[in-house]
From TrEMBL:
Residues 150-188 form the SWIM-type domain. This is Protein FAR1-RELATED SEQUENCE. It comes from Cuscuta epithymum. One of its GO terms (biological process) is regulation of DNA-templated transcription. The keyword Glycosyltransferase does not apply. Belongs to the FHY3/FAR1 family. The lineage of its organism: Eukaryota, Viridiplantae, Streptophyta, Embryophyta, Tracheophyta. Keywords: Metal-binding, Nucleus, Zinc, Zinc-finger. Residues 301-312 have a biased composition (Basic residues). GO terms for molecular function: zinc ion binding.
Amino acid sequence: MVQRFALEEHDWLRVMYNERTRWVPCYLKPTFWAGMSTTQRSESINAFFDKFVNSKTTLKQFVEQYGCALRDKVEKEFQADTSSFTKMIPCVTRYPMEKQVQQIYTLSKFAEFQRELLEGKLYCDIFLCEDGRKYTVQEHMDINGFRKIVNFHIDFDPNTSFGICSCHLFEFRGMICRHLLVIFVRLDIHHLPEVYLMSRWRKGMKRAYQRVKINYDGWITTVEQQRFDKLCKTFESLANMVADDEAKYNEVLLWLETQLTTYTPPVSHSCIVGNMTPLEDPTTNIRAEVPLPPIGDPKCTKRKGAPRKNRAKGPLEKGKKKGRAKKDNAPATTATIQHGNSEGPSNTATNVPR
């Protein structure tokens, strides 16, 4: 709009555009983004990808490292799920809703809910209520070292216990806000409705990308590939429905094996005989012995570098060799003198060189 109407020199619009990171998120709050935004700092994401790719990574290496990055991400989430099942953050209040979230959510998300509950009880209070459907909650906030009271408006439905707060924390991050929790405590609502318990924050949540198979699909999406992808999605949905039930699992598995036998293309006898790589006799279904090619010794190749005998030796090595030669010759001289002298050990001792 600024370029269209030539408003680059307008002072107020220029200031508003430079500070767009402050007012643009207000229009994105009613939409779920899991707390992410385009203006946030992403050092953790950059550090994660720095382990696998860099500025010199080729396209081939990038495709290979994609599988490694996905595997690392899944393994870390498995470790977090294990910690959520084996560890527990203690409750700090007596409200049943805190115990409910403790048993369902992961450790990090339960800690976030616990913080909302505590700060709601400490810093929030219901200021106004109209017909039991419209509430105004005041929160004492600390903004840049200054104390400020901010009003939040909630539209609440007492029949379904569902409310929409003007802070839009649940719509934006998927976590119920402290202002709604204050209303739940005031109305003696002991358990959170299912709409506030998102499946993405639950323990043992099975994520779709954990089943992604890394392979090469080609550059052109053919009709056969589209059929294959559609069948994979259908089989995945069916597997998610029957994986937790033993009876349904056996029934579906038996049906799939029957269909596999029905649609397996027949293989001719000549095709099998002409291709004996499986090492199997087609008539008796017994493993046949095929003569193996002769396996000889590996070829001798010339080793790199100069030969050991012709290697130039330094002064230190030459000195050690002379010292060893003197030690080896000393016992031989002594034995010769002793053998030639028969007068006694005294003469032998005098003739031995020191």
